[in-house]
């Protein structure tokens, strides 16, 4: 998911690394490792989304910031649901269900929005 904007690309690589750790721990049914990984992922994901949003004003005339923000807000809710399932409810089955929807669906929509943002930033 290389978009050609170093700051965004580095953030995405880090998030995928953290999300892979969450998924591996959930798959292995290692609750404590999943809880640690979920906490690290949530913190990094929220920081990354805020960092991207700080770029929106720079490209307001070339980028649909409101649609992108809506996608971010949906992602935040999903990331919080994942964190709650693992850290508050110790429910790895629910976490697996959330991950199964997150990875193909949410990631594709985030990538589409980030591609538009990257294109606007490079203009």
Explain how this protein is built.
The chain is mostly helical and 123 residues long. Helices cover 81% and strands 0% of the residues. The protein contains 4 helices and no strands. It has helices at residues 6-27, 31-53, 65-88, 92-122. The radius of gyration is 15 Å and the shape is elongated. The relative contact order is 0.17.
Supply the helix-strand structural class.
mainly alpha
Radius of gyration, whole Å: 15 Å
Point out poorly predicted stretches.
none
Number of helices: 4
Q: Largest sheet, described in full?
A: none
Q: What is the helix fraction of residues, given as a range? A: over 70%
User: Distance N terminus to C terminus?
Assistant: 19 Å
State the main characteristics:
single chain; 123 residues; mainly alpha; 81% helix
Would you spell out the secondary-structure blueprint of this structure?
Elements: H1 6-27, H2 31-53, H3 65-88, H4 92-122
Helix pairs in contact: 1-2, 1-4, 2-3, 3-4
What is shown here, in short?
The chain is an all-alpha fold and 123 residues long.
């Amino acid at each position: 998911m290389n978009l050609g904007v170093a700051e965004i690309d580095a953030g995405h690589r880090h998030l995928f690394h953290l999300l892979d750790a969450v998924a591996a721990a959930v798959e292995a049914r290692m609750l404590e490792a999943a809880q640690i990984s979920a906490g690290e992922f949530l913190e990094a994901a929220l920081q990354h989304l805020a960092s991207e949003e700080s770029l929106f004003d720079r490209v307001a005339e070339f980028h649909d910031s409101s649609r992108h923000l809506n996608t971010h807000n949906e992602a935040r809710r999903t990331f919080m649901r994942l964190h709650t399932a693992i850290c508050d409810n110790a429910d790895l089955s629910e976490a697996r269900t959330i991950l199964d929807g997150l990875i193909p669906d949410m990631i594709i929509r985030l990538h589409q929005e980030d591609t538009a943002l990257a294109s606007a930033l490079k203009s």
